[in-house]
Design goal:
Elements: H1 9-16, E1 20-24, H2 28-33, E2 38-42, E3 47-50, E4 53-58, E5 77-82, E6 85-89, H3 98-105, E7 110-114, H4 130-140, E8 144-148, H5 160-169
Parallel strand pairs: 1-2, 6-7, 7-8
Antiparallel strand pairs: 3-4, 4-5, 5-6
Helix pairs in contact: 3-4, 4-5
Length: 184
């Protein structure tokens, strides 16, 4: 089984036809249009088993709209479990109290949390900053934190995730991974 992460529809169409994909309810027709034929739509807390993987949809705090009048699509994060290990990826989300429930329901080994939000131009509470990501990490009770979307963080805040994680976790529970050689 392959896991493909890409940002181009052309690449997706080339490999998608026989690859399963798991999406929130209401998103299936979008990925069908990208060439996926094996689509599993889930509601919150539902799980699908794909070979050795158990994939569960969790709540998050965002919205599922893909264009202006698109208000019917769900959104969510994913817990992926295999061979006794668990990864949590919440995608784009703001901090919300549901991280504690996710941590209560799943034993998370690795948490991939977004850190790229500082004074969002829309004013919407739909993204986390590094300090909120550390708070979410602690509420998840995950073993390891890997911050994502580092390139979206303005340069004056690039050191904030490492600093926030070290302060909040005493340098023992959070491990910060560099995204590129130029990141501090």
């Amino acid at each position: 089984m392959r896991i493909l992460i890409t940002s181009t529809g052309v690449t997706l169409r080339r490999v998608a036809a026989n690859q399963p994909i798991v999406v929130p309810t209401g998103v299936g027709n979008l990925v069908h249009d990208l060439g996926f034929h094996i689509v599993h739509e889930l509601d919150y807390w539902q799980t699908v088993e794909l070979g050795p993987l158990k994939i569960s949809l969790t709540p998050c705090h965002h919205w599922g709209a893909r264009f202006l009048a698109d208000l019917h699509r769900d959104f969510g994060g994913f817990v992926i479990a295999s061979n006794g290990r668990t990864i949590f990826h919440c995608g784009d989300t703001a901090y919300f109290p549901g991280f504690k429930e996710i941590g209560d329901r799943f034993s998370v080994d690795l948490a991939l949390l977004p850190i790229g939000a500082y004074e969002a131009p829309t004013g919407r509470e739909v993204h986390m900053n590094p300090e909120e990501a550390v708070r979410a990490f602690l509420e998840l009770r995950a073993k390891t934190l890997i911050p994502i979307a580092l390139r979206d963080v303005p340069s004056r805040f690039r050191a904030a995730p490492r600093t926030a994680a070290a302060i909040a976790c005493g340098g023992t529970r959070a491990r910060n991974r560099k995204k590129s050689a130029g990141d501090d």
